[in-house]
């Protein structure tokens, strides 16, 4: 998949995943008696689960990007002095 297709899947897929997650919450609350008797516990679980998943994905992606940067595989923005513009952003390898 190229980057445009990946972005389209991300933009279209994320709202549908959210909708499916809401449906899962409603189904659990309707069909599971214990969930109806302990709404605070279930709400805590349903808030923490996606937060932990997204946080771990974010940390892993940051780690991979940092490793690429350390190996010199990615370019980074650095400020370079310019006489006319003050500072100008340019691609430079470290």
What helical percentage do the residues reach?
Answer: over 70%
Please state roughly what percent of the residues sit in beta strands, choosing from under 5%, 5-15%, 15-25%, 25-35%, 35-45% or over 45%.
5-15%
End-to-end distance, in Å? 30 Å
Multimer state: single chain
Average of per-residue pLDDT values: 81
Note the overall shape. Answer: elongated
Secondary-structure element series: HHHEE
The number of helical segments is 3
Q: If strands are numbered along the chain, what order do they take across the biggest sheet?
A: 1-2
**Count of DSSP E strands?**
2
Whole-angstrom Rg: 22 Å
At a glance:
This protein is an alpha+beta fold. Helix content is 71%, strand content 15%. It has a two-stranded antiparallel sheet.
3D structure, described in words:
71% of the residues lie in helices and 15% in strands. It is of the alpha+beta class and 94 residues long. It has a two-stranded antiparallel sheet. The two termini are 30 Å apart. The model has no long low-confidence stretch (mean pLDDT 81).
How do the helices and strands line up, and which of them pair or pack?
Layout: H1 3-31, H2 33-37, H3 39-71, E1 76-82, E2 86-92
Antiparallel strand pairs: 1-2
Keywords:
94 residues; alpha+beta; two-stranded antiparallel sheet; 3 helices; elongated
């Amino acid at each position: 998949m190229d980057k445009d297709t990946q972005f389209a899947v991300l933009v279209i897929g994320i709202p549908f995943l959210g909708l499916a997650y809401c449906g899962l919450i409603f189904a659990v609350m309707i069909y599971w008696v214990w969930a109806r008797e302990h709404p605070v516990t279930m709400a805590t679980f349903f808030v923490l689960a996606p937060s932990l998943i997204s946080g771990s994905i974010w940390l892993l992606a940051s780690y991979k990007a940092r490793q690429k940067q350390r190996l010199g595989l990615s370019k980074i923005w650095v400020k370079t002095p310019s006489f006319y513009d003050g500072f100008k952003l340019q691609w430079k390898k470290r």
